[in-house]
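Below is the record:
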Amino acid sequence: MHFRRIGCSTLALALPLAAHAQNMPSDPLTDIIVVGQNNEGNATVEASEADLTPDAASLAARLPGADAAANGPLSGQLQYRGLSNDRLLVRIDGQRFQTGSPNAMDPPLHYAPLPLVDSITVDRGVSPVRDGPGLGGGFDAKLKTVDFSKGASFEPHADLSAGYRSVDDGWSAGGIAGLSNDRFRFGVIGSHEEGDDRRFPDGTIRDTSYSRDTYGVQAGMRTAAGQVDLELREQDTGHTGTPALPMDILFFHTMFANMHARLDLTDRLHLDTAFGYANVRHAMDNYSLRSAPDSAMMYRRTNVSSDAFTGHASFTLGSAERHLGFGADFETDDRDATVTNPNNAQFYVDSLPGIVKTRVGAYLEWRGAFGPVEGEVGTRFDHHEMTASAPLIGPVLPQAAQMLAQQFIAADRDWRDDTVDVVARFWSVQGDVTPRLTLARKTRVPNAVERFSWLPIKVSGGLADGNVYVGDVDLMPETAWIAEAGIDWRSGGAYARPSVYYRRIDDYVQGVPYDDTPGTIDTPVEMVANVNGDSTPLRFANVDAEIYGADLDFGTRIAGPLRIDGTATYVRAKRRDIDDDLYRIAPPNVRLGLSWAPGPWSLTVEGVGYAKQDHVSVTNGEEPSDGYAIFNLSGEFGAIPGVTLSAGVENLFDKRYAPHLAGYNRVTDSDVPEGARLPAPGRSAFVRIGMRI
């Protein structure tokens, strides 16, 4: 059974309505599905998209425990219970892949344009071992599809939308159209999104314009033995700003291919297999969108390429509620990044030279019961390898950089290790109350930036803290010991799902001072870092950390069609080895929505409040932030079958505020001072129309 969270507005301004709470799951393994269309009281929810922002991360961030760090209009990084970036298992249609940009300008949800998103599923707490390694919870964005029809005759299907918002004169249009019968389905998807620089109460945030196009085809076939699905998709992101990072997006040319098959080998033995490919070609620079550097020698362009293959084969023996699952999977990724100066052909350097990463894993998982207690217990083993090639470096680079290149060439650039994950979940249905418990050991292998960044430049894997980093080939995998407990309660039209959790993380990867004399420039690393604007560089190192907190979603019907729903989140994250906090952790926050939905129309008033955050990372130079509260208003009208009209206003009172997870502005000639935390958008009206046949 699936628990579906349903927003009253298709633009996801409203908190999820919860008449669906009467159908809340008793099984904590269920997915929470964030959707945008109001289907109050309907257990089978048809999803819609949210047009409030162009970034799907903002939709997923509405979950309790979740948030998003906006490095740019299309570069939002998810955070869930204090974990971000590749510590979370984020997929598109079940496909795993690595971001193409070394600064994470294209986190996975960059490839889920909201006009094409059907739903976003979120694993509670931790992901099951069958989905692969990952330190925290998992997100899977499901794109729209043409479903199979019931008869032999082909029928047309379409799910289309178009929308506009005032804060950046942004608009989007897209969807899917195709034909299907009971055996075959064919679909064509496409979307276009663009917007100008975003406005806030004191002016304009320069370098926040964006442009993105996506198009593709999909097909499926099913027989009595099972189903096979194919998808080809290409995405072209044009000039798009990232004011919290040292460069902007010139382009992403990305192609995805995915094949997925589900076969019934016998009545009790089932096979699920998939193969995927992702090809990324990317360029970024510091002069096309933002003001160019004063000196021609400081112009920079970085060219990046990445090719990734994934695959898995898994078997399930038994039924959905009682079974043994086992399988194997693999990932390979081949990438490189070269920094150039367009004004000097002799300036080039491979900052990430020919990085090849491979993983091969296998898992075993059991699901059954111990009397009244249901359980799922699984373990997985993964073998990891990562290598780097010898970097090329231009003759005009300074002697200190040449020395670092030679040191990296002479070093051992091959790394390999094994990891073991274990997840055990238990729950018991006791009438209206379902207590649940999760115990887990989860791991994460450091990425290419953390391990092989030999050149001290402002590449941080999306941290956006302004520091210069270098990597460490000998980094150990992160290991998290996790405990989570909670209760699911529902009674009539009311529900509440509180959770508390604790993560003790050994060998957490964190930036630390490069040496024991920070500020004293006496090494080649510090010399090059100083030229790049940071006299106190950091190096990625293994430290000890802990993260704990609680979150809650709740709601109840007040009277007739009037409901109140809400979420609350608290997370605390800090180092265990020294007295410091982890970087960029969301402060305590609460959302409350009051919804009136008497028939084909609905109206929602939402309040969002964040506390101040003064638990900040001294190591990363993080600034504290103030608390704030904003209000949103949205409505939806759906009297015409298949057509939905939505409209509303975000930040109704045009309040100026800067979310704690926002990055720091690095763009001159903006109404936001350079080095200041980037503010949120001002008052923004929106309208959207959707059509489904």
User: Anything to note?
Assistant: Residues 3-692 form a domain with the Maltoporin; Chain A fold (CATH 2.40.170.20). Confidence is low (pLDDT under 50) at residues 1-30, 35-49.
